[in-house]
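Tutorial handout. Part one gives the primary structure; part two gives the three-dimensional structure as tokens.
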Amino acid sequence: MFVHLGGDVIIPKKDVIAILNVRAQHSPITQEFLEIARGEKTIQIIAEKGKEKSYVLTREQIYVSPISCSTLKKRAEAIIFTVD
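Part two.
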């Protein structure tokens, strides 16, 4: 299963470690974490400036998504059935 993060980015659901609200960036611990990630160039910004809503953490990358945490959660939990 895959999760669409916005833009043209789709990642395997199994790679998602956490989804954080963009407001979490105001926490000192989160700020430090994001500064380290910026230094390591592991942040991929999908959202347009000012439209960031969530951070999606994987082992290799942090994505800045324009899609809210609740919507990403619903997408990750969605099971798609097909009828043959």
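Part three, for discussion. Helices lie at 28-39, 69-77. The CA atoms of residues 21 and 54 lie 5 Å apart.
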